[in-house]
Amino acid sequence: MRDMQAGVPDRIGGHQMKNVKLTIDGQEIAIPVDGSILDAAKKLNINIPTLCYLNGFERFTSCMICVVYEANTEQLLPACSAVVSEGMRIETGNELVREARKDALDFLLSEHVGDCDAPCQRACPAHMNIPLMIRQIREGQLEEAIQTIKKEIALPAVLGRICPAPCEKGCHRGSYDDPVSICLLKRHVADIDLEQKSPYRPIMTLNTGKKVAIIGAGPTGLSTAYYILQFGHTCDVFDKNRQPGGMLRYGVSDENLPKAVLDQEIDRIAEMGAAFLMERSLGTDLNWDDLKNAYDAVVLAVGKTDPDLFESSGIELTRRGIMIDRKTYQTSVPGYFAGGNAISASESQMAIRAVAHGKNLAFSVNQFLKGEEVTASFARFQSILGKTREDEAGEFLKEATEQERIVPANFNNQGYTDSEAVSESRRCFGCDCRKPDTCKLRQYAEEYKASQRRFTFVERKKFQKNIQHDKVVYESGKCIKCGLCVQITKKAGEKFGLVFVNRGFDVRVQPSLGVPLNQGLEKAAAACVSACPTGALSWRDRETREDIGR
Description:
Elements: E1 10-12, E2 15-17, E3 19-24, E4 27-32, H1 37-43, E5 67-70, E6 75-78, E7 89-91, H2 95-110, H3 119-123, H4 130-138, H5 142-152, H6 156-162, H7 166-170, H8 182-195, E8 211-215, H9 219-230, E9 234-239, H10 247-250, H11 259-272, E10 275-278, H12 288-294, E11 297-300, E12 336-338, H13 351-369, H14 393-396, H15 411-414, H16 418-425, H17 440-447, E13 472-474, H18 484-491, E14 498-501, E15 508-511, H19 517-520, H20 525-531, E16 537-539
Parallel strand pairs: 3-7, 8-9, 8-11, 9-10, 11-12
Antiparallel strand pairs: 1-2, 3-4, 5-6, 5-7, 13-16, 14-15
Helix pairs in contact: 4-5, 4-8, 4-16, 5-8, 6-8, 9-13, 18-20
């Protein structure tokens, strides 16, 4: 249908259809009289969020995330179903609209039963994608697994031996018997990689011509160098000691961390291009003017700070260490950044936290060197299931073995064998969302800064997982009752399909007549998975990419 901006009627089947004029965010448009506000906004390329809308299907108007403000009547209207009328003045993004959308999201999230990122990943200071690593180990994809690990962790073979495993404290499996042995699995992959003729090396951006000085070759400095090099900058790593490693070399026994393992991982960073300039001390061999003249940015990972060394630097200190912006790691002097024990001894008592500091430091340094505003790395919205209940263990075990935690026969020397690692990986509950990047509920929760806890007044619903279909998983606690799958199965001519049962707060979607899910989704599984705005309907195989475009 042509967009008749001049208000001239369209002709359809020989009949004239009247157009109406309205304005949306100050832009005038004319569309057919039976069109919706959402239709008009789309013609103007104005984005209005939707969860329960799918082109070609009935406007169900259940989520209310698409509300807009009509200035003439001072009303909030659902854009997907509200029909246009002459002279409407629509505002799509004022404060009242944003508050109403947030209210709708807060309410939907209050009933959401499930985790976005798995609790093990949230508990890891480096936020490594632990569930993905575990699945890759289970499938024997060790090359892919080391890439997953080293995307977030620069020294995995080291940390696989000495990390106190905060990730395992968050593991849902621990509420049933014992958590998955995440650190040993990480060590297994990292050790195998180091044994290769050509261990994994991350892709590095073309050289930018920028040069960074890193003062301190401990875990924070090493991690910073690892990521700085990937961004395409060169770096010199200075340290007062004879060899790099900091507390990893001089504070951990060889029994717990063989120095050969540490050396191998440091060698990988050196091969990427890091220059290690040892026995160079700040204040004697290095002065502030030389650093300023020779480098485009400086990272201070010096461990415990000596106030006397900073008198002429212009860098402000606190009684605990160097003062920084806690989000960006910037000091009071532009181009100077600090992390690890240099800002506080309590900040990086765990090596994994020190390594995470290095990754975050490099992110901020890269923004600075590119001339961008230095911001904190983006923190994604997290739906949190919370503590699992006794009656939920069986739901998680539908995709995990009941085998007890595996303790390697030769722990200190070799860690897991290949078969032990695969068996241990099969214990994982797989509690991370299958649609972490495409879930529209999560995307809008981030955009509108929604809260999952605002309307939580009663005990949450039970976590349930339906795997009666050979390709699809249905997690009813993530369903927002948008009705799209119900309409899709009906249109597809499914014999049973999906239907709403019960009323009010107890309403839910399930296969008709109580048949198994595989009978309810014989024809329309792909369309339903694609249309589902959350992770309620998803592929059992997380790597499936059969989604139909919406």
